[in-house]
Amino acid sequence: MKTENQKAWFFVLPVLLLVAFNALVPIMTVVNYSVQETFGNNVFFWQGLDWFEQILRSDRFQAALGRQFLFTFLILIIEIPLGIIIALSMPKKGMWVPVCLVLMALPMLIPWNVVGAMWNIFTLPKIGLLGYFMNDVLGIAYDMTQNPFAAWVTIIVMDVWHWTSLVVLLSYAGLVSIPDAYYQAAKIDGASPWKVFRYIQLPKMKTVLTIAILLRFMDSFNIYTEPFVLTGGGPGNSTTLLSIDLVKIALGQFDLGPAAAMSLIYFAITLLVSWLFYTLMTKDDAQ
Amino acid sequence: MAKITLSNLRHSYLPNPSGPEDYALKEIDLDWQDGGAYALLGPSGCGKSTLLNIISGLLTPSEGRILFDDRDVTDLPPDQRNIAQVFQFPVIYDTMTVRDNLAFPLRNRGVHEGRIAERVAEIAQMLEVEEMLDIRASHLSPDNKQKISMGRGLVRDDVNVVMFDEPLTVIDPHLKWKLRSKLKELHQRVRATMIYVTHDQTEALTFADQVVVMQDGEIVQIGTPVELFERPQHTFVGHFIGSPGMNVLPAEESDGAVRFQGRQVALEGAVTGQGGTTQIGVRPEFVSLADAGLPARVHKVSDVGRHAVVEAMVGDTAVKAIVEGELPEQGAEIHLAFRPDHTRLYRDGWLSTEART
Q: Is B83 an 8 Å CB contact of chain A?
């Protein structure tokens, strides 16, 4: 017979309080703002779902959302395959393993705003190493402060530089857990390198890749610091991603109501996509 | 199918081996007859897996040649040797169905689909996995996974040898027996040469017609299970095979007589060679309680079911005897008798008496 012990609740209680104060209470505050209008002095007027409607219908939001999806899509399509390729080419044993692992971990240890600042200085025309090299040595016009395309290339290359390591390390962890016998059996079965990848390495990496994609999706979809420091959302609005736009509305214009509604929509999209992706990826295992 | 010849095979995992202790395989000269069922038996680390990987081509030996039917295959990669290997842990392609798993080695070799379907059906029927053909291989139980990895080896009809590297390690005890008899049955049906690596004597003795016993990178004896039991060529074989293993007792040799604890012991035949460390080897099965003989004191009696193992001290040396019927008390003074035709002298570990004619 199963014994029920209600004491367990007391052990969960501290965590519950913690979660309440760092998540539930702030979110409820946002929900509160999202359905009201205020002109200061702590006077609020009931607005209903007007802000949500306004945000969803606004061209500005739709454009930012589009840029956000484009950014996330581009970095995923580059970082995931690139991460797998790097992980595959890393040594499996020997003295170079720790060297490779440390080198890979380095970019991730750098604080986000430092990454933004680094790349800003690195890519500025005339004074930045890359900016100078591109413009004055190679003669290719490259100015991420003026040209939207250059700005996009720069924020994407920066994100790839900063975060591909995460995919590499996760994939590598999946790869080294494959017993030698699998490779030996594949050799005996006459499998080509592509088939070894397709039928042994990829399936064994599936779990960690799911986590890698999920983490990279959430992080890149919510990205703020690096592009803000690098381009400040410009030139024009060309690199104004959702979070940058959100901060502009909330702190720049101090439109608390619309900003709160936008936050909730933003949060719902992140949650929905993550949930859909995770459910689809783990569907097979559940059967 | 082929006869496999190993000639002057030596292998070291070190780049520049200096002495014999650097070699995982010391000197192997061996013929595996076509269609034989062999077991490679030895404790962990004796070099049996190394030997297996050399035959399959996963390892290239430091010295020596491997011939399949007189064709030198030493430098060929595994996929060109037409061998099959079943590993300790079942290797299956998780994302494929059982059917695709079985077809995989054939597809890689460009066999046409009709022939593949035919072979897969044949093997599935042989392994009794027909009803599982369309499920994902990752959903199978470990014993069925092991069957599928075996099937991937057998599906090629040109396979020279099927090798098993301790294939029952992860299988539940009650299924081990089933799978083992399945293996034996398969061998009788396909008549391919099979080499079964294990450290479990029961598995080796039940599977194989010929057992190759290895120790420290050397082959100590090749023989049928009966030969290994009846006349071990080395104290290691005597001790390793049998439950309990052979009694190996210190012996003094003087004036052509062999003494144990000061008493002369009758042996199966004339003593050969001289010098070295001498030991007497006699299996517990051939030690009996007698009215006269070696005086001993019973130290321990363990009843193992069909019979009991009596451990008695002769001086400071323990001697085990298998006794049926009435058992002595612990501490009782008894006499032991060795059956002369099964009592032998070993010199530096190796058999040193002539066989009785």
A: yes
